[in-house]
Design goal:
- With about 425 residues, the chain is an alpha/beta fold.
- It has 2 domains: about 5-245, TIM Barrel; about 345-430, Sandwich (Immunoglobulin-like).
- It has helices at about 5-25, 40-45, 65-70, 75-85, 90, 125-135, 160-170, 200-215, 235, 255-265, 290-305, 320-325, 330-335, and strands at about 60-65, 95-100, 140-145, 175-180, 220-225, 245, 275-280, 310, 345, 360-365, 370-375, 380-385, 395-400, 405-410, 415-420, 425-430.
- The strands form 3 sheets. An 8-stranded parallel sheet has the order 7-6-5-4-3-2-1-8. The protein has a 6-stranded antiparallel sheet with strand order 9-10-11-16-13-14.
- The protein is globular, with a radius of gyration of 22 Å.
- It binds 2-acetamido-2-deoxy-beta-D-glucopyranose (NAG) (7 copies).
- One 2-acetamido-2-deoxy-beta-D-glucopyranose binds near residues 346 and 347.
Length: about 425
């Protein structure tokens, strides 16, 4: 899809901030004890956290950006909502219908100062769409930006957090995606944040101001920090929102998916209830990803417990793709009510080569232990020792394929499976 100049420029800014973060000294623990030494805006920034009435589990839904970019109007959101019901996605757990950038008029309302939905695209207003989405038992998300303009140049919320939070809540919005474009120069980050704590960086404070404004509305709302992995967000994201983007925008290519996997695999200890690394919206149905790559995209987003926001025109998905995104076992792992942690990398055998991203992951769910194997290269047999899976030990184990539900048999010591190029094996393991 075409990238606007605004967006491209913001990417460059984002990359600069990332490299500044990489050169900073090791961050201290996120304790508030040091706040007494803070000066300037960090000393007065709000510290209230996100609502814990929502956002315990990673979000499941749909967003307009990957499939439609700026070419949106209310029809596509109502169509996606109806497809959630018709295709059984709502029954599978998908609930959010999220509006991305370009819903706004060019200017705020001259008398109220409010952001205005562009009437030619949204004749019913955002409240009108919210009513229809809610009537289907679903939830509505909206988009703004912690800068002077959104990525595509529309009015944004920096400095107007209170008014915009009130407006979104009054419209009935349930979810806010908050982007990171067009940051005024006095809001950029120093190489080292105050007290060496990135929670006190200017970036974090831009987001903390919106957290406080949302809190003051008195209504719980899911708050998604679209901060592109800058300012070490995984260290403080859960104190400010429910999920946070870990990288720049995804594209519908294996190289993009595999680089997001490699980046996110390093920060899986930040993931638990109310605390989700966001690997970006789904590209299933877009571009020329192979079927195996689409399976890996879904499985890895599920076992790393990223939000899963479908990003394509749902009318165009075929039955194989629908089966992937409705896979009950992977969705159960993703939405587990008892275990909040994701699967994490382990060393499969004493001699397993190391790859980027890692190929072998293990994690517990309320059903048992799971192993996921991503083939980052060409078709091959992949082997792991049961004793290397943290928490399994030695013995005989029964292995079930989560994609098909099929029992693969009982095995001692080790397990081998052929995995296609860029495909992912998903296994449930019980002691035999
Ligand atoms: C606002 O913050 C207070 C203090 O943490 C909390 O008790 C309250 O539930 C929050 N309200 C919302 C709507 O998030
Ligand atoms: C939205 O765009 C589609 C496709 O261009 C069009 O068919 C539909 O009527 C439009 N809806 C509104 C509300 O403008
Ligand atoms: C905040 O609102 C004021 C008054 O409507 C407006 O002048 C300003 O541009 C707004 N800021 C942003 C970032 O949209
Ligand atoms: C940047 O300038 C604006 C307008 O003067 C001010 O409100 C804001 O606090 C400043 N930001 C920082 C981080 O000092
Ligand atoms: C669906 O599309 C994928 C490619 O994205 C293809 O591999 C698969 O065979 C298709 N399934 C059906 C039922 O056409
Ligand atoms: C895997 O083994 C390497 C050394 O061979 C070690 O550095 C690494 O920490 C191990 N990884 C895990 C997840 O245990
Ligand atoms: C991918 O597999 C090929 C063929 O087995 C092998 O030659 C190559 O070294 C592998 N690449 C990596 C990065 O492991």
């Amino acid at each position: 899809m075409a990238m606007s100049l605004h967006r491209l420029f913001s990417y460059v800014l984002g990359a600069l901030v990332v490299s500044a973060a990489a050169h900073a000294s090791a961050p201290s623990a996120t304790s508030t004890a040091a706040t007494s030494t803070l000066t300037g805006i960090a000393a007065t920034a709000p510290t209230v956290g996100p609502s814990h009435q929502v956002g315990r589990l990673p979000a499941l839904g749909w967003n307009s950006w990957n499939g439609h970019a700026c070419n949106i109007n209310e029809t596509i959101f109502l169509d996606a909502a109806n497809q959630f019901i018709f295709l059984g996605l709502a029954d599978a757990g998908y609930e959010y219908i999220n509006i991305d950038d370009c819903w706004q008029s060019e200017t705020r309302d001259a008398s109220t100062g409010r952001i205005v939905p562009e009437p030619s695209k949204f004749p019913s207003g955002i409240n009108g769409i919210a009513d229809q989405v809610h009537a289907l038992g679903l939830k509505l998300g909206i988009y703004s930006d912690a800068g002077a303009k959104t990525c595509d140049g529309f009015p944004a919320s920096l400095g107007n957090e209170t008014l915009d939070a009130e407006t979104f809540i009054e419209w009935g919005v349930d979810y806010l995606k908050y982007d990171n474009c067009n940051i005024p120069s006095n809001w950029t980050d120093a190489a080292t944040p105050p007290d060496d704590d990135w929670y006190n960086s200017n970036s974090a404070i831009r987001y903390r101001q919106m957290t406080a404004a949302l809190n003051q509305t008195g209504k719980p709302i899911h708050f998604s920090l679209c901060i592109w992995g800058t300012a070490n967000v995984w260290e403080w994201g859960a104190r400010v929102g429910h999920s946070w983007r870990m990288t720049n925008d995804i594209s519908a290519s294996w190289s993009s998916i595999s680089s997001i996997l490699a980046a996110n695999a390093q920060h899986l200890d930040s993931v638990d209830f109310f605390s989700h690394n966001d690997m970006d919206m789904m590209e299933i149905g877009n571009g020329d990803l192979t079927l195996q790559e689409q399976r890996t995209h879904f499985a890895a987003w599920a076992f790393m417990k990223s939000p899963i926001l479908l990003g394509t025109d749902l009318n165009n998905l075929n039955s194989t793709q629908l089966d992937i995104i409705k896979n009950a076992e992977l969705l159960a792992f993703h939405q587990d009510p008892i275990v909040g942690t994701p699967a994490t990398p382990f060393n499969a055998t004493a001699s397993a080569p190391s790859t980027s991203p890692p190929e072998f992951y293990a994690g517990r769910s309320s059903k048992g232990m799971h192993v996921f194997i991503i083939n980052t290269n060409t078709t091959a047999t992949k082997t792991f020792d049961f004793a290397n899976v943290p928490g399994l030990g030695f013995g005989r184990f029964r292995v079930q394929d989560m994609w098909t539900g099929k029992d693969l048999g009982t095995f001692a010591n080790e397990f081998s499976i052929t995995v296609d190029t860029h495909d992912t094996a998903a296994l449930l393991i019980h002691r035999a």
